[in-house]
Amino acid sequence: MPEQVEIPLDDVGSTQKNSRKHNSSALKTVKDFIMETDSETEISDDDSVESLKTAVTKNLTNMFGQSSTTSAVSTDSSDFSNPKNCPFCKIIHGDGDKVLARFDANSIKAECGLIIINDHKPASEIHLLAIPTERRKNVTDFNTSMRTAMLDKLYRHAKKMDSGFNVEDCLTGYHKGSAISVDHAHMHLVYPKSKMSWLSWLIFRQSFYFEDCSSHGNSVKF
User: Fold this and answer.
1) Cα separation of 119 and 88, whole Å?
2) Residue 188 near residue 174, CB atoms below 8 Å
3) Distance between the two ends of the chain, CA-based, in angstroms?
4) Which residue of 89, 125, 177, 198 pairs with 7 in a disulfide if CB–CB is 3.0 to 4.6 A?
């Protein structure tokens, strides 16, 4: 089980009224999450933020498994080999309206091309995905050059979207094992990370289910 950590709540404004309204909404979201993912956990309106944090951490552990190595699904399954079952393949080969940028293998000097799209459930103001045009399950199934290209293009595209882009306030990385939501390797960029909810922060923090690659931003040449 991952170590217990302090999870920062959002900056909810300067007035007590706004603070109470925000916290009430946040607690409702967390309680809904717990009820959806663990029917055995009983919660009430009197539960504290700390107890809810503990419950969410336990539920994420149950959802994602104990190990990113033992919980990974084999890429040899028949479902994986069928691109019709992959939402990213559909975007790559069909729905061009969702593609923000496209790069072929020669232009990025990598194993294959890649696309940049918006995440359909953004964790902050900007939430991008870099997706290789060749379908493999894990980001680590690609070599270093490909992974570097994915990160470089994410940072540069985010910079185009926000002229005040601050690398230090940017989060990048990828999920592992059972935390992988789509069986097609992809990397996330979330910006600004300072505006992420604490629940999003929990999902995208360095852990056994998420690999944080944010340090790469310091080496990107814009």
Assistant:
1) 11
2) yes
3) 39
4) 198
- The region of weakest confidence among 66-70, 135-139, 177-181 is 66-70
Sequence-ordered list of residues with C-beta below 8 angstroms from that of 208, at least 6 positions apart, any chain: 2, 64, 66, 67, 68, 176, 177
Token code pair at residue 99: 């593609």
Tokens of 101: 């940028």
Q: Give the mean pLDDT of 22-39.
A: 51
Q: Tell which residue, 28, 38, 27, has the closest CA to residue 60.
A: 38
What are the chain's domains?
16-64 (no CATH), 78-219 (3.30.428.10)
Contact indicator for 42, 17 with CB cutoff of 8 Å: no
Tell me: pLDDT of 55 over 80: no
What pLDDT score was predicted for residue 1?
43
Can you tell me which residue has the tokens 């999450």? 33
Cβ-based neighbour number of residue 108 at 10 Å:
18
| pLDDT for res 60 | 61
Residue 161 zone, left/alpha/beta (φ > 0; ψ -120 to 50; rest): alpha
Given strand 114-118, what is the order of strands in its sheet? 99-103, 114-118, 126-132, 187-191, 171-175, 210-212
What is the model's pLDDT at position 24?
A: 53
pTM of the model: 0.70
- Of 69 and 33, which is predicted with more confidence? 33
Token look-up 């592992």 returns: 176
The residue with tokens 């055995």 is 40
Backbone angles phi, psi at 13, to 5 degrees: 100, 175
